[in-house]
Amino acid sequence: MAEQAQLNRIPGHCGARSWRELNSWDAVLVLAAVFLAAAFCWRSASVTQHDWNWSALWPYLVSRDASGAWQAGMLLKGLFGTLRLGFWSLIVALVSGGLVGALSARQRGFAAWPATLYITVLRNTPPLVLLFLVYFFAGSFFTEPFLRVEDAVASLPAWAQQTCAALFAPAGQMDRMAAAVLTLGLYSGAYVAEIVRGALEAVDETQWDASASLGMNAWQQLRWVIAPQAFRIMAPPLTGQCISVFKETALASAISLPELTFQSLEVMAVSRMTFELWIVTAALYLGVSCFWAWLGRRMERREFRRRSASAGRG
């Protein structure tokens, strides 16, 4: 009976198991993973015959300046650029997608066409093509406004210029940053809109009727009754979409925005390193993705505890 219960566990939906609860299938999976990893390492060493030199990569991560103080290397600067681009793109995606999803929920016929058009066009167009359209086509219309913004930033004190560079983009890169943020934000917003719409429509119809019977208007229904229940449904897919936003920032390297992938290409051109460089780059992206996965699981556990406490009080 205990063995059957262990086999029926679903990863991601059950509590953690202790070492004593592991079964023979777990041992088989571990052995298979170790065997595949060893075979991959052996085959890589025998085919590539690469002379690994990890120490040569450290100056591109951290280094000392002329005064002896530590400073970020090209790869860490690229990581900061990725985090900056991902953050603003995520804000645009959540705002645009949340609004479209909330306004299109429970809409049918002609009323649903604007949201359907937005979602269909953006989700079925490659993001790299969208990036080129925004950067080359729309950029020609907004060149003068961006020049005015950069002139205004240049007239600020030094500390304000550094703050703008740290929070958004350094001087000379604002047009590329804005194009990348707009493209990735709207593209991911199409997916967020479907997540939000599906979660809102998944809430039972009786919840809408019950809240309406209490005299609530549409906004109050959504704010106090429907949205809290829908959040439990949309939290896992939204976590995955947040991870996708930060991974898709690599596309910005196509317009020479100095994020992590672009900086890695620059380092490869200078150092002639390939394997060590891209392994570290992949590890940095993996670290960002793992952070969002951890944050999503933490939010889910907190929501589960809150529901359990509410059920206990009830």
Spell out the key features of this protein.
single chain; 314 residues; mainly alpha; MetI-like fold; two-stranded antiparallel ribbon; 12 helices; 72% helix; disordered N terminus
Note down, in words, how this protein is organized.
- This protein has about 325 residues and is mainly α.
- It has a domain at about 85-255: MetI-like (MetI-like fold, Orthogonal Bundle), CATH 1.10.3720.10.
- Helices cover about 70% and strands about 0% of the residues.
- It has twelve helices and two strands, in the order ααββαααααααααα.
- It has helices at about 1-5, 25-50, 75-105, 115-125, 125-135, 145-155, 160-165, 175-200, 205-215, 220-250, 260-270, 275-314, and strands at about 60-65, 70.
- It has a two-stranded antiparallel ribbon with strand order 1-2.
- The longest helix has about 40 residues, at about 275-314.
- The protein is globular.
- About 25% of the residues are buried.
- The model is unreliable at about 1-15 (pLDDT under 50).
Task: Note the topology.
Elements (H helix, E strand, L loop, with lengths): L1 H6 L16 H25 L13 E3 L5 E3 L1 H31 L8 H11 L3 H11 L5 H12 L3 H10 L6 H29 L2 H9 L4 H31 L11 H12 L3 H39 L1
Antiparallel strand pairs: 1-2
Helix pairs in contact: 3-8, 3-10, 3-11, 4-8, 5-8, 8-10, 9-10, 10-12
Mean pLDDT: 85
**Estimated helix fraction:** over 70%
- Regions with pLDDT < 50 over 5+ consecutive residues? 1-13
CATH superfamily label of the domain at 83-256:
MetI-like
- The total of helices stands at 12
The CATH class of the domain at 83-256 turns out to be: Mainly Alpha
Distance between the termini: 33 Å
What class do helices, strands and sheet pairing give? mainly alpha
- Quickly give the CATH architecture of the domain at 83-256: Orthogonal Bundle
Strand order of the largest sheet: 1-2
Strands, total number: 2
The description of the largest β-sheet is: 2 strands, antiparallel
N-to-C order of helices and strands? HHEEHHHHHHHHHH
